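Model it.
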Amino acid sequence: MKITTICIAVLLITALISCKKSNNEQTIEQFDEDAIQDYIKQNGLTAMKKDTSGGDTAGVYYQILTPGTGKVMDYPDKINYTYQFAAFDGSYVTTDTIANHANTYVGYLSPKGLEHGIKNILRRKGGRIRMLIPSHLAYGTNGVSSGTTRLNGNQCLDYIVSVVDNQASYDDISIKNYIKTYNLSGFTKTASGLYYKVTKAGTGTSAVTINSVVGVQYTGYLFNQTVFDSANTSDGTAGLTTSMYNVIAGWQEGLPKITTGGKIILLIPSGRAYGDSANSGIPAFSCLRFDINLISITN
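Modeled.
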């Protein structure tokens, strides 16, 4: 009887300890909330609001930097957006919004907190938002790898996103900012939004047409000065020979402005380049710079 009483007492004590332990354990939502509150305090982010767009809270905090005025976005809508984000611990930071261009459906946005913020908080195209995304709506306990860089697990994210409304207007602003940033001058804008500057007059008499085959040397740049492609030679011969049918619209419009031996710089809006498609190191909806030396024309 005494042994039975002792066993029951031990079981009761064990149960009480287990209950106490369970009550003191943090859920991932509580862990994230504490992390976000600390981050807000440490960085003076007093304008951050807690999201309650669903009638409850998903744990996202946000600040609308620029209200959107365009179309309301829903899951089937395809959007162009730029982004930058950092892990709270500073171990992962991506800030270059020239490289960080993306084009996808709202319903395919990742991580989940980004989808939630764009659809339910920002809501309209043309807007810009800063969000603090809890880890359970980011990349969870496993984190994620990107090339040689890894985002650790259980990391909340500081995310800034801009959703493009009018692509042509966005491209024109991007080109003007590029010209200003790199102190360029002497460019002419065409009706299509192409900017060009003839840097060397050609000596040839034949004009480039859509039916021409051209031999060129060239270098292609993103607007962060990254070279994504080139075809240059040391002996002055063409690095590329191609039909004008096979080049992007910006080349089709720009090359006829010079003749053989001429050189031209083209600042091409994304709609006259590769549009919304990423292409061989070129992010979606990228404006591009090409420095071109026209070596030969065959009509």
